[in-house]
Amino acid sequence: MPKRVLTGVIVSDKTDKTVVVNVERKVKHALYGKIIRRTKKYHAHDEGNEFKQGETVRIEETAPISKLKTWKVIERVNTHATPERATIDG
What we know:
Layout: E1 5-12, E2 18-28, E3 35-45, E4 56-61, E5 71-76
Parallel strand pairs: 3-5
Antiparallel strand pairs: 1-2, 1-4, 2-3, 4-5
Protein backbone atom coordinates (compact mmCIF):
# COMPACT_ATOMS: atom_id res chain seq x y z
CA MET A 1 0.00 0.00 0.00
CA PRO A 2 1.48 3.40 -0.96
CA LYS A 3 2.30 5.96 1.69
CA ARG A 4 0.04 8.99 1.83
CA VAL A 5 1.66 12.37 1.14
CA LEU A 6 -0.02 15.60 2.26
CA THR A 7 0.86 19.28 1.84
CA GLY A 8 0.31 21.81 4.60
CA VAL A 9 1.59 24.80 6.55
CA ILE A 10 3.63 24.51 9.75
CA VAL A 11 1.73 26.16 12.60
CA SER A 12 4.12 25.24 15.44
CA ASP A 13 7.79 24.26 15.71
CA LYS A 14 8.21 24.66 19.47
CA THR A 15 8.83 21.02 20.37
CA ASP A 16 12.11 19.23 19.78
CA LYS A 17 12.20 17.24 16.49
CA THR A 18 8.46 17.79 15.96
CA VAL A 19 6.41 20.23 13.90
CA VAL A 20 2.63 20.63 13.77
CA VAL A 21 1.34 20.85 10.19
CA ASN A 22 -2.11 22.22 9.33
CA VAL A 23 -3.51 20.46 6.23
CA GLU A 24 -6.50 22.03 4.51
CA ARG A 25 -8.80 20.21 2.11
CA LYS A 26 -11.95 21.28 0.30
CA VAL A 27 -15.02 19.06 0.30
CA LYS A 28 -18.45 19.44 -1.18
CA HIS A 29 -21.37 19.52 1.25
CA ALA A 30 -23.51 16.41 0.77
CA LEU A 31 -26.88 18.18 0.72
CA TYR A 32 -26.28 21.79 -0.26
CA GLY A 33 -23.34 21.35 -2.63
CA LYS A 34 -21.31 24.24 -1.19
CA ILE A 35 -17.53 23.83 -1.08
CA ILE A 36 -16.36 23.76 2.55
CA ARG A 37 -12.79 24.03 3.88
CA ARG A 38 -11.83 21.32 6.36
CA THR A 39 -8.54 21.49 8.29
CA LYS A 40 -6.67 18.95 10.36
CA LYS A 41 -3.43 19.19 12.31
CA TYR A 42 -0.76 16.49 12.08
CA HIS A 43 2.32 16.09 14.27
CA ALA A 44 5.27 15.34 11.98
CA HIS A 45 8.85 14.28 12.71
CA ASP A 46 11.59 16.83 11.88
CA GLU A 47 14.91 15.18 12.75
CA GLY A 48 17.19 18.22 12.34
CA ASN A 49 14.80 20.95 13.53
CA GLU A 50 15.30 22.58 10.13
CA PHE A 51 11.70 23.58 9.34
CA LYS A 52 10.19 26.74 10.79
CA GLN A 53 6.70 28.09 11.44
CA GLY A 54 4.91 29.45 8.37
CA GLU A 55 6.68 27.24 5.83
CA THR A 56 4.71 25.03 3.45
CA VAL A 57 5.91 21.42 3.60
CA ARG A 58 5.03 17.95 2.38
CA ILE A 59 4.59 15.20 4.97
CA GLU A 60 4.61 11.44 4.48
CA GLU A 61 2.92 8.72 6.49
CA THR A 62 5.30 6.44 8.44
CA ALA A 63 5.24 3.80 11.13
CA PRO A 64 4.39 5.28 14.55
CA ILE A 65 7.29 7.25 16.02
CA SER A 66 5.53 8.29 19.24
CA LYS A 67 2.00 8.58 20.64
CA LEU A 68 1.04 11.44 18.29
CA LYS A 69 3.64 11.23 15.50
CA THR A 70 2.96 8.96 12.54
CA TRP A 71 4.14 11.43 9.87
CA LYS A 72 7.53 12.80 8.86
CA VAL A 73 8.45 15.94 6.92
CA ILE A 74 9.97 15.03 3.55
CA GLU A 75 10.51 18.36 1.82
CA ARG A 76 9.89 22.08 1.76
CA VAL A 77 7.46 23.34 -0.91
CA ASN A 78 8.69 26.50 -2.61
CA THR A 79 5.54 28.64 -2.71
CA HIS A 80 7.34 31.95 -3.25
CA ALA A 81 8.98 31.01 -6.55
CA THR A 82 8.12 33.38 -9.36
CA PRO A 83 7.29 31.79 -12.70
CA GLU A 84 9.69 32.53 -15.53
CA ARG A 85 8.25 35.01 -17.97
CA ALA A 86 9.00 35.08 -21.66
CA THR A 87 10.69 38.32 -22.63
CA ILE A 88 9.24 40.11 -25.59
CA ASP A 89 11.78 41.95 -27.72
CA GLY A 90 10.07 44.87 -29.20
